[in-house]
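User: Some background: our group keeps a shared notebook of sequences we're curious about, and every so often someone picks one and asks for a predicted structure to add to the entry. Today it's my turn. The entry only has the sequence so far, pasted here. Could you supply the structure so I can complete it?
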Amino acid sequence: MLERSGGAGGAVPYELDREGNGYFSGIILDAAPDMLYRYRLDRKNSYPDPASRFQPDGPHGPSQIIDPGEFGWTDGNWRGTQLAGQIVYEMHIGTFTREGTWNTATLELEKLAQLGVTALEIMPVADFGGNFGWGYDGVDLYAPTRLYGMPDDFRRFVDCAHKIGLAVLLDVVYNHFGPDGAYFKEFSDDYFTDRYENEWGMAINFDGNNSAPVREFITANAAYWIAEFHIDGLRLDATQQILDSTSPHVLSEITQSARRAAPGRAIIIVAENEPQHVKLVRPIEQGGYGMDGLWNDDFHHSALVSVTGRNEAYYTDYHGTPQELVSALKWGYLYQGQRYSWQKQRRGTPAFGVSPAAFITYIQNHDQVANSGWGLRLHQLTSPGRCRAITALLLLARATPMLFQGEEFASSSPFLFFADHRPELAKAVRKGRAEFLTQFRTLFTPEMQRLVPDPADRATFERCKLDLNEREAHSEAYALHCDLLRLRREDSVFRKQGSFDGAVLGSEAFLLRFFDAENADRLLLVNLGLDLHLGIAPEPLLAPPERKRWDILWSSESPKYGGAGTAALETEDGWRIPGHAAVVLIPRTEKSNPQE
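Assistant: Of course. Here's the predicted structure to add to the notebook entry:
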């Protein structure tokens, strides 16, 4: 039975007819936008609609009818996008601005476009319990959370982004439902299965008894965001916990469902996959799932160790060496089937033949910043020079780079784990978070445990809000990111993102050479250690193109970025590569030698 909220007169009931396939339906002649309703099950308790398009009072309140056709889209000429060539920007709407709304975030889109960002990746927005959270405990998968505004505010955000050339990707969670406000079990036990273990509760039933409607619920959700919100793609969270033994795998069906929902425009499907299964991005005709990209934690872990020197916990299998960084940029994952000591098992599958652009690389993201315990940003964990150098590597290499909100201006705001729950659940979440952090020996000490912020404290959430005035206050960091993204966008060689190779020059120094058919290669030298003097240089990748010499095009040590300046690198007594720096070299024509 459907019950419409009837004000002082009480709820107005509508009988629903059994369809015979597990569903009930009915025609409500006086239904209209904004009407509030619930479902009464077996004439007992009433619950919100599992497929509600909006929950104005949160997941425990009534559902609200939303007419998706009311919004006046202006992006009819937008044809979508593809992953190659993108600069991704991960953002959490609740902390991106002080107000934490779609409307205030919309006002900042021009600034992001001017920075050089091309695609926004929005952390999950499916409604969840409480008044703040990361969004990964969503329970109403079709209802954009009321915390950031109305559904049409979200649509307006996307419409305005398209108007200035920005794509919008949405992070979605199909591996579990949140612990507060998920009423699926009241409707049917078949939403869940005990055949598998899940890190965050009961596993979703994708392959057991009566699983077809569950699969449809999820695949239709992927299509819903694409069709009704004009989203340009999805980032699928923790796909290793989307467990399915059938063929085609539900991940493949999610991907195809999303693509069908975007006739005439291209969309991007990206996956997070901890065990590093490359089949997710292999073509369907080759037995893959047909996705476009994969998050690359291997690059992040090696990069962080290289600039901080810390490799505890899940960083154990990384030394941050030049060879690791070169290999990660050439081959994607570092672990493609080798033994991984931290997990005491093999990790990954071969990624040969996969385009470097298919790997999303980053030196910050929501998880990794928060897992520092105090939510510290990378610039707070290493030296300014190293931070500038590793940023240059991230933004100039051929992989698809991703920035995390505030990274571009060295935000002083932390990004902590925060989740608003009722007291008993908040206590369990606090305990679980503390136990998770104990894998880091430095966070396991009693003095550090006492200092880890309480996820349920609103002050923890408020501390994470960006101060966008720091674009000006931290102008050196902001200029660094603007200039690097401009170089990637406007330089003839970096713009092509063509073939490249790399070589190790020292214990903390290496190079990447970007090849160009017009004999105009670019050389990126990165030195994360002491000044390096190469009296001899028997490395062919250091040699300039014929009849040319190398000249400095860009340096992370420019005073504009707070650096100490850069002298010529190739001298009469060999190469002198500055420490804690990245330098881009360009070939210049040499004066002809009459003896040649």
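Suggested note for the entry: The chain has 17 helices and 29 strands. The first strand starts at residue 2 and ends at 4.
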